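Training component of the fellowship. As part of building independent skills, the fellow (R.M.) carried out the full modelling exercise for a liganded target. The chosen ligand was coenzyme A. The inputs are recorded below so that the supervisory panel can assess the work.
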Amino acid sequence: MSEQHVLTERDGAILTIRLNRPDKKNALTRAMYNGMAEALSQAAIDESVRVVILAGGTDFTAGNDIKDFAAVGDRPATEPGAAFSFLETILDFEKPVIAAVRGYAVGIGTTMLLHADVVVASETARLQMPFTKLALVPEAGSSVLLPARVGPARANWWFLSGAPISGAEAAQAGLASRAVPDNEVEPVALEMAKQLAALPPGSVAETKRLVKAPHRAMVKEAMAAERVAFAERLRTSEAQEIFAAFLKK
Ligand code: COA
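Fellow's submitted model of the complex:
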């Protein structure tokens, strides 16, 4: 059931939102995006939550469920997608978000990290934005956030080639805050979350707001443009053929 594909765990003031669909490498269904958005919305109004950790298991997520990509051709391009609603929610979320990334972090599994405040990656994590390999385009505001984060030269190559990026490389480039041995990802994320949870929450929230403010309008505009292009690309025959081949495999 979808509820079990997104779990929430509490440790004092820290809420962990955990993707839990390991047999599909945590590929994200619409219900899972809704589950994550719902958990964030609850955390936003629960004063006892001070920090959110976003985690998977041995894999973070293999990205959007390709079955849903394949089925999207049947729905009008104007319908707001669950992924988009989740992204809007994380964009507006005022408390710190720490992503704990092990294994695969594909597509939105990588681009959603640009909306986290801290990213703890396994040295051996495998990040990837295979948008061109799937005949798609970047999303989640990544077309402006990634070049700003890692520089245009690296962002261009990662976007255009869809080449995989190790957690170590992601940290070196500034996409991840830290790369640590695989078995230390969750303990380090929890330790960092505890440090933030002990600080005055008003000051932490205001600091986050100030850091994000200069990019906010630009990110919203990029997300709107990407959304139109992404919806169009999903419905092209070149993309639909690639999805069908993946699903047949
Ligand atoms: N959508 C739907 N199902 C997915 C999926 C996705 N994004 N990613 C993995 N799965 C499923 C596989 O179909 C497989 O299901 P099955 O056991 O019923 O056959 C299961 O998860 C395990 O994946 P598998 O491909 O066997 O694992 P692997 O270790 O050989 O490869 C990946 C892992 C992540 C490289 C590979 O699964 C993959 O390329 N996934 C698609 C990633 C992607 O393009 N995401 C969209 C980005 S926009």
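The panel noted the following from the submitted structure. The domain at 6-197 is CATH 3.90.226.10 (2-enoyl-CoA Hydratase; Chain A, domain 1). The chain is about 50% helix and 15% strand.
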